Amino acid sequence: MTEGRAVRSFAIIFMGAVFLTPLIFMILGSLRAPGLPPPDGFEVIPRGLTWDNYNTVFAFVPLGTYLMNSLIVATVAVPVTVVVASWAGFAIATATSAARRWLVGLCLVTLMIPLSALWVPRFVMFRWLGLLDTMWPLIAPALMATTPFYVLLFALAYARIPPTLFEAARLEGLSPLEIWRRVAWPLAVPAAFAVAVLAFAWHWANFIDPLLYISSAEKLTVPVGLRALQTLEPTNHPILLAASVMVTAPPVVAFLAAQRAFFARTVGV
Length: 269
Hints:
This protein is an all-alpha fold and about 270 residues long.
């Protein structure tokens, strides 16, 4: 048992180091003097550490505005995604066996549709609705759970709940919405945390939709803003890395907060 725990601990530490190493080098690279190229060899601590790059970023692009726009989109889209995906997943989990197979198959088929095939139809639809150059096209995917993958995650979580709980709730006269709210949802909170983190990362890193639907510079989000900074300063790597650190910080904070809430809910820590 002790040897098995040691192996698991080593695996966890190794995987953590694998994922943290790029972040550490990104932070250290952002502290190099402005204008310096990447180091030729292995450099753990850069010489002449400076925080000036973080102030210089805002001289090139309005990164604060881009961050605020992305936060607005994520703040609206993530809760909507979680609720819609949970409703759809609950519908799949409580459907009959035949209907469940068809619905799961439909989700899988939808997952295989390339997003590029939807760019033109969505652009035409949003133009017809008069929503171009607004935040609504960036939030609209949340009305369809953003991706069927989140629906399947909730469906799997609800499928683990004993069906007798749902039957007992029906016998008590509860409606499907009340069964979801009072029985299914409290037991699927860990899945909700997982979907919330994934949805936040998806909307935060969404590059194509702002590029297609937003034409005003003050309404752009951080992925397009980073691209604009790279165009202005393609060789100033410390400044690019400083901007990357600021853009990466919110998803990391969201992940850590969700992880803490997840373990507090499931383990009682």
